[in-house]
């Protein structure tokens, strides 16, 4: 992983991180928004303390631990990655409620176009705001977007101390089992 200066990370605020998507995926994972490390590298969930890649492997979605730079391999497993909000920030709390709601609207359009079997939003708070569902909990949701089922997963950020890598992997595995049936 390259090291970036604070100036290089701040310059990444203007970058667009391309989605890793294809039509008809089994699961489209949806982050909150790109962090500055993700924007600087162009690879989703690139911050070293983020547990997305280890949890994805531990839950059985991937046969080995992928590095963020190997994100395109997800497509071969029927998996993809996008974000609720495209704008990179140092912290998710820099986003406004309006950005989340607009992001939810745009995400619903994207899901309608790509038609994954499952949309997995990583972060219950982001899901609640983006889809105006204040009572949402981690797990499968009653909401569908077209034929796409929705599952809310815990946020894999290292800042989310409520979930361990083990308990996150259990929840991700529940989704994997549902996506395989």
UniProtKB/TrEMBL annotation:
Keywords: Activator, Chromatin regulator, DNA damage, DNA repair, Glycosidase, Hydrolase, Isopeptide bond, Transcription, Transcription regulation, Ubl conjugation
Gene3D superfamilies: Uracil-DNA glycosylase-like domain
Any GO BP annotation: epigenetic regulation of gene expression
Every Uracil-DNA glycosylase-like domain range: 18-179
Alphabetized InterPro entries for the sequence: MUG/TDG, Uracil-DNA_glycosylase-like, Uracil-DNA_glycosylase-like_sf
Any matching Pfam family: UDG
Molecular function as annotated in GO: DNA binding; pyrimidine-specific mismatch base pair DNA N-glycosylase activity; uracil DNA N-glycosylase activity
Secreted listed as a keyword: no
The enzyme's E.C. designation: 3.2.2.28
Protein name: G/U mismatch-specific DNA glycosylase
Name of the gene encoding the protein in the UniProt record: mug
């Amino acid at each position: 992983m390259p090291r970036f200066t604070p100036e290089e990370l701040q310059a990444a605020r203007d970058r667009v991180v391309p989605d890793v998507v294809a039509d008809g995926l089994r699961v489209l994972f949806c982050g909150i928004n790109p962090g500055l490390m993700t924007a600087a590298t162009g690879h989703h969930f690139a911050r070293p303390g983020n547990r997305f890649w280890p949890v994805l492997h531990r839950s059985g979605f991937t046969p080995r631990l992928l590095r963020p730079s190997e994100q395109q391999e997800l497509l071969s497993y029927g998996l993809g990655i996008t974000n609720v909000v495209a704008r990179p920030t140092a912290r998710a709390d820099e986003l406004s409620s309006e950005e989340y709601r607009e992001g939810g609207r745009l995400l619903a359009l994207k899901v309608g176009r790509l038609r994954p079997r499952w949309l997995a939003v990583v972060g219950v708070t982001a899901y609640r705001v983006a889809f105006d569902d204040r009572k949402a909990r981690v797990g499968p949701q009653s909401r569908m977007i077209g034929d796409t089922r929705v599952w809310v997963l815990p946020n894999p950020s290292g800042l989310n101390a409520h979930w361990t890598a083990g308990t996150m992997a259990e929840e991700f595995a529940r989704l994997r089992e549902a996506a395989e049936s």
